[in-house]
Structure formats: C-alpha cells, structure tokens
Amino acid sequence: MALLLSSSAALAQEVPFYGLYGTPGLIDMPSADTAPDATLSATYSHFAGTSRNTLTFQVTPRLTASFRYTAIKDLYLRGWDRDTYYDRSFDMQYLLVRETDSLPAVSIGLRDFIGTGLYGSEYIVASKNVSPRLRLTGGVGWGRLGSYGAMGSTGTRPTEVIGEGGIPTYDRWFRGDFAAFGGVAWKATDQLTLKAEYSTDAYDTEQQSGTNSGVSYGPVFERKSPWNFGIDYRMRSGAQLSLYSLYGTEVGALVTVHSNPHRAAYPSGSEQAPWPVKPRKASERADLGWQTNTNLVDGLPMRMRRSLESQGLRYEGMDISATKATLRLGNSRYGDEPEAIGRAARAMSRVLPGSVETFVIVPVVGGMAMSAITLRRSDLERLENAPADQMLARVKIQEGFGQAPALEGGIEKRLSWGIAPYMDLSVFDPDNPVRADLGIRAKASYQISPSLVLSGSITKKLSGNLDSVTREVPSGLPRVRTDYAEYSRQGDPALEYLTLAHYGRPGKNLYSRVTMGYLEAMYAGVSGEVLWKPVGSRLALGAELNWVRPRDFDQLFDLRSNVTSSGTIPELNGHVSAYYDFGNGFHGQLDVGRYLAGDLGATVSLDREFANGWRVGAYATFTDAQIDDFGEGSFDKGLRLTVPFGWAFGKPSRNSNSIAIQSLTRDGGARLNVNDRLYPMVRDYHQPELAKEWGRFWR
Q: Is the pTM of this model over 0.85?
C-alpha cells in the first residue's frame, strides 16, 4: 500500500485536507474542495469505537467519488448479534462553481447514496479563502447533516436503515429536515492547519440504548456539544495526520495518503536508452546492389533478431524488398506500446539496407496480427529530435489482417515460466471483514504454434484463512461461487488452471479465441469468443459462449456433479458485449447474457484509464435473481484498481498489480474467470490507444 499510494511534494501542495469521512472536508463536515484530477486517496479514521476506511478518487476535475467501509463497536441494528456493526457506503460530490477572487467554490454532494443509509445525507456547501491562510466553509445539509439544529424541512424523509443494502436511496435525497453547518481552517504554517467546525450531525443512531440477546447496551458515545476542533499536519510526502476533539467527549485521529497516476515515482523512467536512428548517406538510398549479396540478405533476419532482443523485444518474422520491409514484432516488456514500436523502428534503421524506405511494423499477440503501423524511414531520420506528435501525424495505423507470422526459433523461444507470490482476498464478511490466502504460484506457457498456446498454473498455500468460514453462506441460487471456502480448504496444492488456447483472425476486423481445459479454479470446460474491432474505431462488439462443469474441491483433475444444495448449475453460459472508448481515458463496457447460476442480466462497467497503464473503475451487475436469493448486498458490484509496475518502479514492464474491492462473494451475477479475453489483448495496438501513448515513441 505504501508503494501504491506514494506521493510527491508537488501533489502535497495541491491536495486539500480530508476529514473523518475520508473526503475533502473540515472535520466531520464536508467542504467544497476538490483534489487535483485523478488523485487517489486512502484514509483511515477512528473515534468513539468507530473506524472508517475510505478510498476516494477524483474521477474528473469536478467529480469526486468515495467508497467507505465502517466498523462501529457496540452498535446493534436490525437484530445484529455481533459486537461490531459493519457498513459499506458510497459517496459522490460535484463541484458546481469554481472558486474565483469574488466567488466561493460551491459543491453538491451525496453521502451513503448506495448502501444501508446509515450515513445517508445530502448537502450543498461553499468554501472560500478570505486570506492566504484563512479559509471559511458553510453549507446546508439533509439527512444526518440535518439532524441537529434543523431550521426547516423539505418533506418527509424515511429514517429506517435499509436492510438489504446496495440499493440507491433516491427516495430520501434532499428530503426532510435541513440544517446549516460551517467551520474555519487557519493555516498556521505551511504544514500545520488548525480547524474548528459546527456539526449538524446529531448521531441519533449511535445515541440509542436497548437490549440485545438479553444484554443491555448503551450509546456508542455521548454527544454533548456540536463543536469539533482539530489539528492537521501535512507531511512532505503529502500524507495527512490529524488529531481531533469531537462533540465535547471524544478524541479522534486520521491518516490519509495520496497518489496520482499523473505523478509517477520515476517520471522519465530508468530503462536503458534506445539506440539512435542511423541516418543514411545519399549513396545508400539509391544502392540496390545489396539484393545480390546472398550472405547479406540471409544474415538480415539474424541481425534484426539480435538487435530487437537487445531492446527486450521479440522477432516474429520479416519480409523485405528493395524499398519496403515488414517486421512482425512481439512485445513482452513495454507497457507503453509506442515505446516498443519506436525502438523497433530505430533497430530497423540500423540493420536494413539504405534503399528500404518504408517500414511496416506488425505487432503480434497470440499469433494474431493486431495492426500494421507504416512509417517512412526519412521521417524517422528527420524527426528524431522533434515532438512525438509530429511523427504520429505521418504514421499510418491500418488493419493487420493477413500478416500472421510463421513460428521461428526453438523451444527456448516458445517456453516461458515464472514463480511469484500470490494473494487471494475476500472482504466484507461480517464474521471476519478481511480474509486472505497467501502462497506461491508457478505458471508456464508453451507456444505450440504461433496461435496455439498450452498454459497452466499451480499454487501452494503458505498461510491464510479463506478456509475458516464455518457457517454456510446463504444462497437461493445454485452454488456457483459461495463454496469458495471449501476450494481453499481442500485445494492445497491446487492446479489453478491448465488450458489449451487457440487465437485467430477469421476475417478482417475479426478476432477469435477458443480455450479448453481446466479454465479456472472452480470450472473446467470450453470457452469460445469472437470480437469485432476495426483498428481505428472506438467501438468493439464481442460474443462469448462457455460450456462448463464444476471442478472437484481439491482442484486437481476430477469434476463433480453440477447439482448443489440450492440448485443445479447450468452447463451453458455466455454474453454478448459492447466496448466503447468515450475519450479522456473513460472506457465503458456492457455485457448482456446468462451467468454461471443461470440468472439472466447485464453488467455495466466504467473505467478511467491513463496512458501509463493506471486504471480505476467500477462495475455493477443486475440480473433476474431476486434479492432474497442473492443475499446481503442485493446485487453484485465493486471497484477495481490497476497499478502498472512500470509506473511504480520506473522500469518497463507489461505486468501490473490489480486490486478488486467487491461485495461478499455471492452466486448471482457470477462470470467465468477465463484467461486472456480478446478485447484487452487487441485494443492496445489499435489507433485510439496508440495515439494516447504516442508520447513514449522516442523513449
């Protein structure tokens, strides 16, 4: 986490202070402030037995989104029979008016608008610097923010905590009593800020007393005053440490760390510099005599292979004529694909005879030609020290259909393997909010032909508690995922997957995949997929069909019956999908079809992606599974974060670390976890994605 949320001195000066809810704010009240675009912040705060863990992302310069997981000790709701109550909530805030010399910043926000409604509230707030060191904030709040000192009402507001959770609370927004809150922040030094605020949250739920299982309990804490006071300290790294005096009776603390995809730890990278372009003499451009030199012609492939390998690239084949060369290129090192293309182009300039003016570079993935990138050698020579966009303006990125390579090289070029640690994570179980297995994963792949790959993975658990679930997770659907504890208990060691996959280009703009074998930890079978994706289009369409059977719990070679305690697992499932690049880094995906449990529905996903490989996104799945059958959470939903290793370590890499934050493992809305679906493989080398990252062409 420390690596993930590293920060910089520049970011530290721009990001606002965060409050107890893990969002820009005073102490317990919100402010109108926003962080720099794309800032990702993680906050832990604690007071009066309440711990709030919040992840906040500045989605756009005006829109802020937050996910929060809260634990409240000795709070008993809805017959809750544990001594700690756990709650998930989502917030959004939108900046309506930017601050100017004469106008304050004005924002509108929703707290806990998808959740149980425990923290449900809405507000309109304004913040303004009245001097370089003094900032005032004032606003009007509804819900919890209108529960103390109400000065009016906008109708009747439901007050009960929603039992199922996960449902938008739109029937409550900006309804009920409203009250005015406010506060002041004084910047004593560049790193120390003092705050005072008037809070309109009465903490009515936390003030309740009662009896649970025959045992009397009192309030979580006593609220004696609406006034809160705090000290914020900003470290040079940008991290925030805060101490608070709260409600006349409590002491609280907070720590917040920040990161931003735009602010890499190694902005310029630390990889080896590429070879420079080799300029030609006028006599070399006109010399065609090399074609009769058999030794030179026969030696070109080997020289090109060696030159590419020195840059960490893979030679997949080459066709050459007097004036044109087509290089088929494999890239397993560079996460920024234009960097691989630029290095390959410079290698061509140093190896190929001077009369070869046209370079065509065909990136190859899984034996599939992704595109054909055509550039002129004279442009390389002339623009090597010019901005990369000038080169992009002269490059043609076209369809690569028909450019499939022949397999070259011996077994040492076909076999790849690796050993690395792994972690399987499960969160939000009320018996144990965080469960995880840690171990070692060994995986390998063997390229039988350019488009046929045999691959597998074996895991050995070293420690963990995913198998510690003793109660049966309730489900009214076939148990397609909720037996995960049994897989952890018996699958040690485990054959994670063992598959034979074929990739192809059945036609122009078309890509295909067929994968068979032990597809994932829980299922074996056959998965087929086809994708339509023109090389210059933002839109892609796909379809996937799977025939599966559940694997035995020991995750070896046996299969088990598809009849479970709560229903029969269908053998067929699949989806039709639409993918669209909205621009500005926003990618949307819609999947419609049949899920593993046989429920019918759709998954909507939206991710913000950055040219350096960062990705922050969210998804929600809605099916015809009833809420009572699905269980706690109501429907499948989650957040996901991908951090590229190249950004974190400054060295080129196509590897990344992905973190999924999702609801409890449930059977509704569950999809097959098959490796190497087509769309992520294909789009990286198409025009929209290459154009975003083209600034790395000369790296």
A: yes
